[in-house]
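I am writing to request your help with a piece of structural work I have in hand. Here, with my thanks, is the record as I have it:
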Amino acid sequence: MAEGETVIKLCDGSYSTNIWITKPGIKIEPWNKEVNAYIMFSDGPVVTIELKEGETCILNRLIISHLGNNLG
């Protein structure tokens, strides 16, 4: 679990998980600025962002994909 204003750097590759952001200022991006990171999940939302009005987060160079029909 990351604190607000944290930069999360992902290694090259694919991730089979969901992302849930509840703190402002989170930035998620690949470690290598030349590639994208792939986020895939099959049960429920791939990305959920629950921030207050005026709060922001950044998802940079992520390819996001839902792997199925179950949107929970």
